[in-house]
Design a protein that fits this description.
This protein has helices spanning 15-34, 65-77, 119-133, 150-159, 195-205, 258-271, 292-302, 311-320, 343-371; strands at 5-8, 37-44, 53-57, 81-89, 143-147, 175-178, 186-190, 212-221, 231-240, 275-283, 306-308, 325-333. The chain has 393 residues and is of the alpha/beta class. The strands form two sheets. The chain has a five-stranded mixed β-barrel with strand order 8-11-10-9-12. It has a four-stranded antiparallel β-sheet with strand order 1-4-2-3, covered by helices on one side.
Amino acid sequence: MSNSLLLSHAQFSDAKKLDEATENACDLMEKIYASGKYPKLFVERAWSEHNPIIKGEIAQPKALRWYLKRELVRLLKKAADIKIEPSREIMKLNDPVLLDHVDESDWDITNKKLFLFSPERTDISLARLQHYTGTDACDFQRYILFTNYDMHVEVFREKFPDCIKPGRDGVQMPAFHHKLDDHKGITLINIGVGPSNAKTITDHVSVLRPDAMMMVGHCGGLRNHQKIGDFVLASGYMRDDRLLDDLFPIGIPVIPNYLLNLYLKQALDNAGLNYRVGTVFTTANRNWEFSKKNTIEKIHQSRSLAVDMESATVATNGFRYRVPHATLLCVSDKPLHGKPKLSDAAQAFYQNSKEKHLEIVIETINMIKANYPNGLPNSSIRAFNEPLMGSGE
């Protein structure tokens, strides 16, 4: 195999030849990377008046293969020409200048295109992902679920007994992968509690370009007519976690993916479950009740109907990194109504809700795959001047 490859849309008269060509392209990128260099892609899009040529370097092409292949097919079908060749040597993770290549302050957040992450960022994020989750980056699937309870892990493992598990004990955020062809399975990660963990994991998972990220957690209900066990489908977030304020302006609205919410609502309706749709208040203060007056004022102003510690953080990073995202929570306590989370009651609630909670999200993913087998459209989380790999811009 040569060290360079030119793919022209004129070369492919049928789907079989197109498939073979994109497989060869992915093989070449893996070969170049294994030789110690980053593969570089040049994409010429004759249809684009303002951005006809986009280019960039790739790292970890094996872990990204499903995504790269899908996007190369899209580009070639739209009559793009693509060149692949070796670039510079791979920077080692212990190189003192590595961090100069991963600083997000250098990003233009309104103008990201094909090459969202630098190759150095991809390398360091996937190394940290393996460290935190105890699993290989190549095992991650297109649909990522985040939980902070072992009980959801138990249900997941019962439903998918052959899932890939962490290769060692004691990992910080254990991941479990129900693998399907073309990475169309589900990954569940127990991220623990708090917005710092939520930011850490989404910083790294987003590099894999998943089709969706969903928070599957518990919350405190804030409305009179909510009951323990009712569900909350987030339509927006009050970002009181403050974790990303320096990186992402607080005034920019962050909302869940419309289609994800549409299918989550349909799954809830199909199951006949009680739920409410509204704003989730995410705080970094686990004992926010000790600052009740100040917190309740923010809750009233935001019209929030539930409080948690992770959802807004996951959503904000999903928006920043252009990953479709959503939140489905279950009310575990009502701290403002004399129903705090006490051990005995909480354990009973967990047993009654854990299986149904996960079933709703799995049903949602199955509906999405049936209706959007090539991934959800994500025009709502792109800038107006930010073409996707296969877009017509």
